[in-house]
Specification:
Blueprint lengths: L2 E7 L1 E2 L11 E2 L5 H14 L7 E6 L7 H14 L8 E6 L6 H10 L3 E7 L3 H7 L5 H13 L5 E7 L6 H14 L3 E6 L7 H4 L6 H17 L3 E4 L2 E3 L6 H7 L3 E5 L4 E4 L2 E5 L3 H9 L5 E6 L2 H13 L9 H17 L2 E4 L2 E4 L1 H5 L1 H5 L10
Parallel strand pairs: 1-4, 1-11, 2-3, 4-5, 5-6, 6-7, 7-8
Antiparallel strand pairs: 8-10, 9-10, 12-13, 13-14, 15-16
Helix pairs in contact: 1-2, 1-10, 2-3, 6-8, 11-12
The structure holds S-adenosylmethionine (SAM) and iron/sulfur cluster.
S-adenosylmethionine binds next to strand 4, strand 6 and strand 7.
């Protein structure tokens, strides 16, 4: 069975104003204890076969060189060398990705880098609470190329406060000029508890939609394949780890806040850094949530993930039987469309995907 391995590194230099991911600023002194905890957790899942590796965060590139080597050793001892994974991604932020770290990552065998840029405008980066400039990103990106990375993803966020359509498209154009193999474009989400939420910032949804629509056109014209709601890739560079997730494949997550999906059971580790470290020190489980989806909920989850992929779904008889009415409703509304044997999100549905997805998540409404 194919399986992904996700390792969470929940440390950041500074917390961005929009981010509600499990990540902690100014906790670098905890990194060594965290790696010890990760080593203890990894032993519990030793030798489970995984083909794709994703080290995400937080900011994995905040680790120092010797800490990255230590992480690689944990992976090698319990699973296999990083170089033996089909795809091995390391997330990096521009301010902490140095040439030395790039050399270490290549030496270990990482073959894919995912870089958070968000915007090419320094005033927007400042507003977001990012600790890097656009030119620092370009320097780090070029260093990654020189260092041998031939598969790089870059993240952008559309719909920033006071951002115009032209300003956002400028960021997209500047990024396209660098020709990363993969681009992720997210619409800004205002998450409860973040500074943006507290400031009462609201997104201009029609403007954000225009940004996302025009971005898709620019990227498609530049040869990128729009294969998932937020993801674009040059041919052959679709992210394997993420695609496996959208196919509802199994994955094992290690670390604070990491989620796993194995044998039909979803599990989630504690999102509290100290609790995670303490649990692993004391031989206790860090898992705080576990559920086995079955029947209609399981089928709905598979469908919801599958519809994220733009080439759509060839419905099974079971999916037709359990969700035929809901699918018909969205076909009539024009949010889903039939193409040959498949059903997929329509152009309209792409921007109203959450409305479609609600039909596949319990409690199920009567149609
Ligand atoms: C898990 S984050 C970590 C990446 C890395 N630490 C960074 O910030 O560059 C992955 C991506 O999610 C996106 N993201 C995070 N919070 C978001 C939000 N509230 N709205 C839209 N996109 C968001 C950003 O593009 C970010 O690069
Ligand atoms: S967006 Fe990235 S760098 Fe910013 S706080 Fe979240 S994980 Fe950290």
């Amino acid at each position: 069975m194919r399986r992904g391995l996700y390792i969470h590194v929940p440390f950041c230099k500074q917390k961005c104003n929009y981010c509600d991911f499990s990540s902690f600023a100014r906790q670098e002194k905890q990194i060594d204890s965290y790696l010890t905890a990760l080593a203890r957790e990894a032993v519990l899942y030793r030798e489970i076969a995984c083909q794709m590796l994703y080290v995400g965060g937080g900011t994995p590139s905040l680790l120092q060189e010797h800490q990255i080597y230590r992480l690689a050793k944990i992976i090698r001892k319990n699973f296999k060398p990083v170089s033996c994974f089909e795809e091995s991604t390391f997330e990096a932020n521009p301010e902490s990705l140095t040439s030395e770290k790039i050399a270490v990552l290549r030496d270990i065998g990482f073959n894919r880098l995912s870089m958070g840029l968000q915007s090419f405008h320094d005033e927007e980066l400042k507003l977001l609470g990012r600790v890097h400039t656009a030119s620092q990103f370009v320097t780090a990106y070029k260093a990654a190329r020189i260092g041998g990375f031939s598969n790089i993803n870059v993240d952008l966020i559309a719909g920033l406060p006071k951002q115009s359509l032209e300003q956002f498209l400028e960021s997209v154009q500047q990024l396209v000029a660098l020709r990363p193999e993969h681009v992720s474009v997210y619409g800004l989400q205002i998450e409860e508890g973040t500074p943006f939420f507290e400031q009462g910032i609201v997104c201009d949804q029609p403007l954000m939609r225009s940004m996302l629509e025009e971005t898709a056109t620019v990227l498609e014209n530049a040869g990128y394949h729009h294969y998932e709601i937020s993801n674009f890739a040059l041919p052959g560079y679709e992210a394997k780890h993420n695609s496996h997730y959208w196919k509802n494949g199994e994955y094992l997550g290690l670390g604070c806040a990491a989620a796993s999906y194995r044998q039909g059971v979803r599990r989630q580790n504690t999102t509290r850094l100290n609790d995670y470290i303490c649990c692993m020190e004391n031989g206790k489980t860090p898992i705080v949530f576990s559920e086995k989806l079955s029947g209609k909920a399981q089928v709905g989850e598979t469908l919801m993930l599958a519809f994220r992929q733009l080439d759509g779904v060839e419905l099974t008889p079971e999916q037709e039987q359990l969700f035929g009415k809901e699918i018909e409703k969205h076909l009539k509304k024009g949010l889903l469309t039939r193409v040959d044997k498949k059903v997929k999100l329509s152009k309209e549905g792409l921007y109203l995907a959450n409305e479609v997805f609600r039909s596949f998540v319990a409690p199920f409404e009567d149609v």
